Amino acid sequence: GRATDRVQILEKIPLVANPQAKEPAEIASNIKYHAHYSPHFSPYKFEPEQAFYATAESVRDQLIKQWNDTYSHYHKVNPKQTYYLSMEYLQGRALTNSVGNLDVQDAYANALKQLGYALEEITEQEKDAALGNGGLGRLASCFLDSMATLSLPAWGYGLRYRYGLFKQLMTKTGQEEIAEDWLEKFSPWEIPRHDVVFPIRFFGQVEVNPNGSRKWVGGEVIQAVAYDVPIPGYKTKNTNSLRLWEAKARAEDFNLFEFNDGKYESAALIHSRAQQICAVLYPGDATEDGKLLRLKQQYFLCSASLQDIITRFKERLGGKDIQWLEFPSKVAVQLNDTHPTLSIPELMRLLMDDEGLGWDEAWDITNRTIAYTNHTVLPEALEKWSQAVMWKLLPRHMEIIEEVDKRFIIMIQSTKPELEGKISDLRVLDNNPQKPVVRMANLCVVSAHTVNGVAQLHSDILKAELFSDYVKVWPTKFQNKTNGITPRRWLRFCNPELSRIITKWLKTDQWVNDLDLLVNLRQFADSSELQAEWESAKLASKQRLANYVLQVTGVSIDPKSLFDIQIKRIHEYKRQLMNILGAVYRYKKLKEMSPEERKKTTPRTIMIGGKAFATYTNAKRIVKLVSDVGAVVNTDPEVNDFLKVVFVPNYNVSVAEVLIPGSELSQHISTAGMEASGTSNMKFALNGCLIIGTLDGANVEIREEIGQDNFFLFGATADEVPRLRKEREQGLFKPDPRFEEAKQFIKSGAFGNYDYSPLLDSLEGNSGFGRGDYFLVGYDFPSYMDAQARVDEAYKDRKKWTKMSILSTAGSGKFSSDRTIGQYAKEIWKINECRLP
Ligand SMILES: NC(=O)[C@H]1O[C@H](CO)[C@@H](O)[C@H](O)[C@H]1O
């Protein structure tokens, strides 16, 4: 049937290998070439999956040339280069992004048409590369896209996890986690570099050589092998690399004797231990995970990456004598949060123990090379590793960390005696007898030349609170770098309809890599012609979203209703609970209305999506509550024309690319001072979706840029929160009756017999663990509901709403990750573009 037709279609296509094909016919041939000569499936099979792999391989051909040219260009020019170390990269799918950045999208669409396929049908075959948890991981991926697009000599280093973030399955009992094997078949984008292999040691002991130098010996040694993923830039030939490390045991470590003795497990023990290292991404978002394997993963990333950086630094010297003091003028290392902090003692170890430098030289080089980005002020997310575990796994590094701590204390006592009393908080080691730990954030602040926050409010809070005493020691060390998102994936490629309109009215598509140009849309915000086009694009995206929701949940939603969306990791500080309590109150009021009254309301579809950390009970209860409320509301004939509540399962990058273009209102309602930045807020604003939110993270700057009239603001501000918590403890808090009514309605069993009192009790009482409404849901609920009422009113005036939507996009220029990376390059890394001729 169709399958044979496809093969017959394929038969007619000439079989010609042409890696640099640009014309559709040539491309079709090249795809056929890969279907034949890069076989991964049975012969004469060309189903969507086979077509995807063949297409991806033909695109990879196009990338490889630019990739190799870029590699040799950087080698030849030998510019200062940046190395971004991150435990997470949330890349999503690569095919659409690659053909888009190579500017061959239309050619590939035509070529596939000749092969009997639509490009969309093929791109959907690709699995998300979900090697990250949320904002921090996706930011790293947006940064890679901007570093390439700005033709900056920059590399990403990460781990090649076998299992990325779990798949979220929604069942009667709520969220279930399913392992997601993204490499089950293979990734067409990665290339193993069997000549880039480094030994990584664990455990063992430190030996002192006769000349007093120290050497780390013994323990177990695992090999780190590089797998490179191409990172194409937009409208540039530069194609950078994301180098992911895989772990494998040395062949000679396989114990043949034991094997022949039948002791198979122990014979292969070292191999299974090696496999464990990169097996799974730790699924905790904004929480630390103190497991030994996590620490092994972190060290594996740091050691492999630094050994590789030093090896290539030497290579680029072309045999000339090594001037180590020049290392920082050729190498900039950025730590994405504290997860790669071990880079600091590892660089010290490599410079002293392997290269023979003294402490002061090594320290000077390390300090001038490494910079650190902080992504959260949440206490439970600040990593502290047990000193005992560190001594066992990394004895040489613990020695170096002790020395850093000692020298820091001496420096404070000699240069900042007024801070003597603060040393126990500022020092790197916390030697409390219960559980002595290493404070990773302190080690980063003490060792790095620059520390930055990820939004202005967050950076101000770092300087005024978390790191305030360090500011007294190093007043110029602290910077702000407000986050950004790549406009390629998050507008140009995921919302082609809106992109076409923007290009038409701006008379250029330069905005795709010069996003500040969007401001020129402002002059047309009142134009009914633009508004009509804008609304039709939004409606088309809403229809696509509605089709997707029907497909994955079975719930049909009405594109004529207001599409209200909150998608992000489930966490109490992000207050999805306030959103669902608001929905419950809205439902209850609709039930109490007469049919006439209901008709006057603004129909709304509330969609919530996000994964909860498997052991985070309250987060899983929130997920269940949303789906239980939806199950009742959506099947209630009295109200389901006016309200629908949907939990969108398995939220990831590809789902976001469908949801964001079709959204009209998005919620970023965290307790002020707790969301460092947020980045989905930027993606929504860029796609003309209005925001209801608190003055938290990047919301503050988005509101400044798009205009406060186009932002539905509510809630306590960050500086009010400590006082409000205190007043709560003193029992001064008076709950809003709507808040009480919503809670009671849930407790009444209106949404099934699951016992939600443990979750709702977290909102009760004046204080105590898991109680006392620490995230101020009760305090902010009334202003939140008032803001939602303003939304309902505003949505009735479509002309006004569409104008606000256009002004939201027009004011989003600042939030391009090109602006962010441009600032990192200039103000932290001191690197320049190195564009291919
Ligand atoms: N864990 C995160 O996602 C963190 O990093 C992101 C990227 O800087 C921030 O936007 C987010 O507010 C923060 O919680």
UniProtKB/TrEMBL annotation:
Positions where N6-(pyridoxal phosphate)lysine occurs in the chain: K683
Keywords: Allosteric enzyme, Carbohydrate metabolism, Glycosyltransferase, Pyridoxal phosphate, Transferase
Cofactor(s) demanded: pyridoxal 5'-phosphate
Reaction(s) the record says it catalyses: [(1->4)-alpha-D-glucosyl](n) + phosphate = [(1->4)-alpha-D-glucosyl](n-1) + alpha-D-glucose 1-phosphate
Listed Gene3D superfamilies: Glycogen Phosphorylase B
EC number in record: 2.4.1.1
Stored Pfam families: Phosphorylase
GO MF entries: 1,4-alpha-oligoglucan phosphorylase activity
Enzyme class label: transferase
InterPro entries reported for this sequence: Glycg_phsphrylas, Glyco_trans_35, Pyridoxal_P_attach_site
SUPFAM superfamilies reported for this sequence: UDP-Glycosyltransferase/glycogen phosphorylase
Keyword set includes NADP: no
Family note: Belongs to the glycogen phosphorylase family.
Matching NCBIfam families: P_ylase
Job of this protein: Allosteric enzyme that catalyzes the rate-limiting step in glycogen catabolism, the phosphorolytic cleavage of glycogen to produce glucose-1-phosphate, and plays a central role in maintaining cellular and organismal glucose homeostasis.
Protein name: Alpha-1,4 glucan phosphorylase
Organism of derivation: Salvia divinorum (Maria pastora)
